[in-house]
Amino acid sequence: MNFNNFTIKSQEAIQKAIEIARGAGNQAIEPVHLLKGVMTEGESLINFIFSKVGASTATLMRQVDEKIASEPRVSGGEPYLSRTSNDVLQKALDIAKKQGDEYVTLEALLMAIFTVNSPAATILKDAGLSQRELEAAVAELRKGKKATDQSAEDTYQACSSVSRAPARPLSPRGLHRGLCAVTCPRICAASRYTRLTWVPLLPVQSIKASLRSV
């Protein structure tokens, strides 16, 4: 996976997930961290989708926070993208391709989290979300628009009335706001986790924005 195939907002959501996991002392980056990252960075978009399916954003966020708080806490050590989270990102790429998108959007990440079996998917399903309702809400949000650039979410009609700063283009290094991404994830033979390689870039610590399929 090439991380430049993700929109700026979806990259920011993954970066937020990493920050959330690190802040909570969780070594493994799980789908529940990705879900909170998507809900945080795509607040207006997610609120629109959840309102269409009758789900409470506040209740879901509380349940997500409770799940994150229950994750194992580890002092020190390198962070890992769990195998399940890796599956989520791959599924998001598949969803984007199926929709005819050139980039993976926030809603593709959300649908991938919903689809891949994990506690995060269970939280969404227990809230009453169904595949059909989720797809219908996304279709209404996008109104036939395709993700043809990395600022695709900014073009959606549903978000046009929400005051928000436009997404800035990525730097030549493919980074945005000191984005932390994943370089060369690999499945360890004796582990169910994918290792994250952290690359320091001054003045903030960042990770090169590239993913490669295992």
Describe the secondary structure blueprint for this structure.
Elements: H1 8-23, E1 28-29, H2 31-41, H3 43-53, H4 57-70, E2 80-82, H5 83-98, H6 106-115, H7 119-126, H8 131-142, E3 193-195, E4 199-201, E5 204-206
Parallel strand pairs: 1-2
Antiparallel strand pairs: 2-3, 4-5
Helix pairs in contact: 1-2, 2-3, 2-4, 2-6, 3-8, 4-7, 5-6, 6-8
Can you tag this structure with a few keywords?
214 residues; mainly alpha
Q: How many distinct helices?
A: 8
Order of helices and strands: HEHHHEHHHHEEE
Q: Which consecutive residue ranges, at least 5 long each, have pLDDT under 50?
A: 157-214
What is the overall pLDDT average?
77
Structural class of the secondary elements? Answer: mainly alpha
Widest sheet: strand ordering: 1-2-3
The main pleated sheet reads as: 3 strands, mixed
State the shape.
Answer: globular
Q: How big is the Rg?
A: 16 Å
Q: In whole angstroms, how far apart are the ends? A: 9 Å
Give an account of the 3D structure:
This protein has helices at residues 8-23, 31-41, 43-53, 57-70, 83-98, 106-115, 119-126, 131-142, and strands spanning 28-29, 80-82, 193-195, 199-201, 204-206. The termini are close together. A hairpin with a 2-residue loop joins strand 4 (199-201) and strand 5 (204-206). The longest helix is centred in the first third of the chain and has 16 residues, at 8-23. The chain has a three-stranded mixed β-sheet. It has eight helices and five strands. It is 46% helix and 7% strand. It is mainly alpha-helical and 214 residues long.
